[in-house]
Prior knowledge:
Elements lengths: L3 E2 L1 H4 L2 H9 L9 H32 L5 E7 L4 E8 L6 H4 L22 H9 L6 H7 L3 E3 L6 H4 L4 H4 L7 E3 L1 H4 L8 H14 L2 H17 L5
Parallel strand pairs: 4-5
Antiparallel strand pairs: 1-3, 2-3
Helix pairs in contact: 3-6
Amino acid sequence: MQSTFSPAIANSPHSQTLTLGSSLHPSVNSSFKRLLDIVGSLVGLLFLSLVLVPIAIAIKLDNPGPIFFIQKRCGLRGQVFHLVKFRSMVTNADELKAQIKNEAKGLIFKNRQDPRITRVGKFLRKTSLDELPQFWNVLMGDMSLVGTRPPTVDEVSQYSDRHWQRLNVKPGITGEWQVNGRSAIEDFEQIVDLDLRYQSRWTPSYDLFVILRTLYVVFARVGAF
């Protein structure tokens, strides 16, 4: 998938600071990290091929509509790409969003009893199966196995300089946020703290640690709802 740059982001003074004034994080040019991403994404896509048909049928039977949820997200230095997930909400979820109370603080949206989530969607989220199509984003290079939570364009348009720092690395399927609280964290500033901590701690071996930790979190369903 070819990445583009959102006009709303490009016109932000923060985007100019990030794009022109900051150096690349070491992880961006790491051959090991890219190799790990390619191998991991191929394994993930192989598993996806095994469960694609039953998941697709379940989504269709539960709530007719698209199998996949595709949304513009911001990656490295604000570049926009199309994130792919299994659809876990009703088809008109965006239209209903204004009617749902946001229980989170800051530039994220969360509601533990979100009525837009379908029955199958709840299962997919609890098991993290809805994330499987993102291995395609990793293979294409828009994402990494480990990184920051990929924000929406609307979120990034409201970023401060501090928030923009989290876009110095590629977004990841997993990361500090997912293995240190996951859905239990409801304050955006805490997520930013964790994302910046990842950047300061990053080494190839640390990525491996986060991946192993993620497997435990997923299978133990730690912090999922």
